[in-house]
Amino acid sequence: MLPDISNALSWLENHSYVLKNINRGIERETLRVKKNGSIATSKHPKALGSALKNEWITTDFAESLLEFITPVDNRIDYMLSFLTDIHCYVARILSNELMWPLSMPCNIKDISTIKLANYGKSNIGLMKTLYRKGLKNRYGAMMQIISGIHYNFSLPIAFWQEWANLQNLKNCKETISTGYLILIRNYYRFGWIIPYLFGASPAICSNFIKNNSTILNFETNNKDTLWLPYATSLRLSNIGYDNNAQNILKITFNSLKEYSNTIKHALNTPLNKFVELGINDKNGKRTQLNTNILQIENELYSPIRPKCINRFNESYSNALIKNGIEYIEIRSLDINPFSSIGIDKIQVDFLDLFLIWCILSDISEMSIEELKYNRENWNIVTLEGRKPNQKINIGCNNHKYPLVDIGKKIFSDLYKLAEILDKNEKNMKYQKICEQLFLYFENPDLTYSARILDIIKQNGMIKTGISLSKKYHNLLCLEPLNLITEEDFKIKAKQSIFEQKNIENNDLLNFENYINNLRIRNSI
Asked: Which parts of the sequence belong to the Glutamate--cysteine ligase domain (predicted)?
C-alpha cells in the first residue's frame, strides 16, 4: 500500500551527514487591504521600490497583491527572521492599510477594484502586465488574487553524490533530476497530507463565487461567508485554482524530457476557448500574450514544480534540459492564519521531513491512470479531508483506504526518519513534530482548517480577516528588525527604481517585436 523505505532508511542512518546544509527559500503572497477589509486600490507603495526589480518585495497578479521573497539559505531561523523583517518593514510603510492574513480573498463587491500589477513601460514590464491581463481574461481576476506560500527546497550536493552511489548512477546532473522527479511523483501521490495538516482555507467570502455557480453544498452565515464543513483548502480545489484547461496535459513527471516536451507543446498549441477570447479587443488592445494552452511557463498550475536557475534568458523548458532540475517549488501551502508571517517553523521542519521521505520512497513511474486517481485524492482532501471515515485511492486499483490510516502509516515512516535526523542534529526536534502532527489524524479538529473554521463560523470571514490583520499589523510594527536595517530596505528600493529606469531607457525593440521574439524563444 505504501512504499517500503526500510533499505533507504538503513542507508541514510549511515550517511545522515549528507542532509546538512539543505537550502530553502520562501515566497509569501498577501493582499493589501483597507482597514474595513476591502481591497486596497492604491498603487504599489513607492517606498517599497520597483515591483519589477526589488528582489525582496514585489507584486504578483494585482497591484495590491504583495509578494515577499527570502534569499536562498540553509538556516531555517535566518530564513524566517528575514521574512519577518520584510513583514515588519512593510507593516510600517502601510500606515493606512493592512496585510490580509487569509489565502482566500477579502470582500470584493466590485471586480473592477482589482487592478493589474504595473511593472513600468519597459518591454519586460509591459509583458508581465499583459500576461496578467491574459490570466484575468482566461480565469477571472478573483481566482488570481488567491494568496499562498511557495516553498523552495534543494538538497546539498553531498546528498546527491552518495545517493548516486546507492542508485548506481554516474552522471551528476541526471542523478539530481532523477531524484527530484521521484520526489515530485511521490508528492503527487501523498502530498495531500500538506493540505490535510496545514490547509487553512475552508471558507470564502460570499461574493467569491458568481451567481452561486457551484454544485457544492456550502453552509453559510447568511451574511458574508460560505464554507464547507470538512474542507481543508478551497484554495487548492476547483473552487480556487481552476486548472481544467491544463488537465489535458497529463504530466506524469516520469522523465525530464517528457516534462520539457509537454511544456513546449502547451506553449505552442492553441486552445479553442482561448482562441475565442482573441488576441485583441474591439479597440485593438491586446487581451493576452497568445491563445495557447499556456501563455508562458509560469501559468502551469500544480502543487509542485521542478525548477532551475535561468542563467542566459533562455526558455524555462530549455534551461531545465540544459541544467537539470536544481530545486523544487512547493505550491500547496495556504497562508497560515495563526502566524503573522503566514508560515511557522513547525511547517518548515515538517516539509523538510516529508520531502526527504518522498525522495527515499518508491521510485516507480506514474501512469496516466494513477495521475487521475492522485488528482481525485487531492480534490477529496481539499473539499472533505476532515470528513469522518473519509477514504482515498492508493495506486490505481480503485481500492479505497481510510485517509486517516494512510496518514498514520506515513507518520510511522516519518518518525523513523525523524530519529535519524534528530540523531544527526543532536536534538529531538523532528520526533516532537511527528508526535504533535500525528495527533491531527487522531483528532481532525486540531488541523489548521478546523481551527480557523471555528473562528470564521463565529465571526464571519470579513471580521476574522480584519481582526487578525490588525493584530498582526500591531505586532509587526512593534517588533524590531533583526537582520535587515531600515536603511537596507531604503537602499534596495532606490536601487530597484534605478534598475527599472535603466531597463526602460535601453529597450531597443518595439513591444510587438519583443512579444514575437518571446514566442520564437518558447518554440525552440
From this structure: 11-381
Q: Say which amino acid occupies 178.
A: T
Q: Which long-range contacts (CB under 8 A, 24 or more apart) does 442-446 make?
A: 444/385, 444/386, 445/386
Whether the Cβ atoms of residue 226 and residue 219 lie closer than 8 Å to each other:
yes
All cell numbers assigned to 347: 511547517
List, for residues 268-297, the tens digit of each pLDDT value.
999 999 999 999 988 889 999 999 999 999
Q: Which stretches within 361-460 are classed as H helix?
A: 368-384, 403-425, 429-442, 448-459
Q: Report helix angle 403-425 to 345-360, nearest 10.
A: 100
Alpha helices in 301-390 (DSSP H): 316-323, 345-360, 368-384
User: Could you tell me if 361 and 349 are in contact, meaning their C-beta atoms sit under 8 angstroms apart?
Assistant: no
Place of cell 518593514: 89
- To which residue does cell 527546497 refer? 153
Please check whether residue 500 is in contact with residue 50, taking contact to mean a CB–CB distance below 8 angstroms: yes
User: Which band of pLDDT confidence, cut at 50, 70 and 90, is reported for residue 174?
Assistant: confident
SS3 7: helix
Strand order in the sheet with 225-227: 203-205, 225-227, 219-220
> Residue 382 and residue 467: Cα distance in Å, rounded?
25
Confirm if 58 and 69 have CB atoms less than 8 A apart: yes
Which of 66, 67, 55, 62 shows the shortest CA–CA distance to 118?
62
- Alpha carbon dihedral 201, 205, 207, 209, in 10-degree steps, equals 20
Domain 6-523 class?
alpha beta
Find the farthest-apart pair of alpha carbons in the chain and give their distance in angstroms, rounded.
Answer: 67
Residue whose C-alpha is closest to residue 247's, from 363, 378, 145: 378
- Distance, in Å, from the CA atom of 16 to the CA atom of 9, rounded to the nearest integer, reads 10
d(CA 96, CA 98): 7
Residue identified by cell 553524490 is 161
What would the pLDDT profile of 232-242 be if each residue is shown by its tens digit? Answer: 999 999 888 76
What's the distance, CA 512 to chain centroid? 31
